[in-house]
Structures are given as C-alpha cells and as structure tokens.
C-alpha cells in the first residue's frame, strides 16, 4: 500500500487528535492543523506529524497561503479531512 499524505484540520483534541495518531500508526504522513499549533500540537509533532497553524475562519487569501505552505511540506496532499468545528454553547432560547 502506498504511503499517503493527509492534511487534517482541528487536531488539538478529541477525534482530530486521535485520528492523527491512527494515521501515523499506519505509516502515513500527516499535517496536523489547529489554531496556535506550536502550543497545542506539540504532542502530535513529537509523534511524527508535521504541524501547521491554521484557522479555518481566516480570510480566503490567508487560507490560500496556508494551502501553499502545506503543499510544500511533503510536496502534495492525498487526503483532506476537514475536522475543524466551532461550538456555540448556550441555552436554546439564547441562540
């Protein structure tokens, strides 16, 4: 099976973080992203993931620059997993 390169958003915790570990365990390369990546993704970097600071709410021009940066890490991306989320927590009447 060929080695794949994955880009996964929202990897600071939860499903995204566990998914990165699963990708690394199968021997694939992964670019893990989150806001404040240097602070929040150190454990994933230590596990062999490349990390990239990315806020999916950024302006399109900034996102385009991040895509170019990500493509330059391994020379391409085979799989994109958009796991980033925003949670609005409140009583339903307040939403």
Describe the structure.
The protein has 95 residues and is an alpha/beta fold. The protein is 38% helix and 18% strand. Strands 3-2-1-4 form a 4-stranded parallel beta sheet, with helices on both faces. It is globular.
Question: Descriptors for this entry?
Answer:
about 40% helix; about 100 residues; about 20% strand; alpha/beta; 4-stranded parallel sheet
Chain-averaged pLDDT: 93
Reported for the largest beta sheet, the result is:
4 strands, parallel
Overall geometry comes to: globular
Low-pLDDT stretches: none
Put simply, the count of helices is 4
Following the backbone from N to C, one meets helices and strands in this order, namely: EHEHHEHE
The main sheet orders its strands as 3-2-1-4
β-sheet strand percentage: 15-25%
Question: What structural class do the secondary elements suggest?
Answer: alpha/beta
Report Rg: 14 Å
Counting DSSP E segments of at least 2 residues, the number of strands comes to 4
Helix % is 25-40%
User: Distance between the terminal alpha carbons, to the nearest Å?
Assistant: 47 Å
Note the topology.
Layout: E1 5-8, H1 14-25, E2 29-34, H2 37-40, H3 42-46, E3 50-53, H4 60-74, E4 79-81
């Amino acid at each position: 099976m060929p080695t794949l390169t994955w880009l996964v958003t929202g990897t600071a915790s939860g499903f995204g973080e566990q998914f990165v570990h699963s990708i690394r365990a199968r021997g694939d390369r992964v670019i893990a992203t989150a806001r404040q990546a240097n602070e929040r993704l150190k454990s994933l970097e230590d596990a062999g993931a490349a990390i990239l600071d990315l806020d999916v709410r950024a302006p399109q021009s900034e996102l385009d620059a991040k895509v170019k940066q990500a493509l330059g890490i391994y020379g391409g991306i085979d799989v994109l997993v958009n796991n980033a989320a925003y949670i609005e927590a409140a009583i339903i009447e307040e939403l």
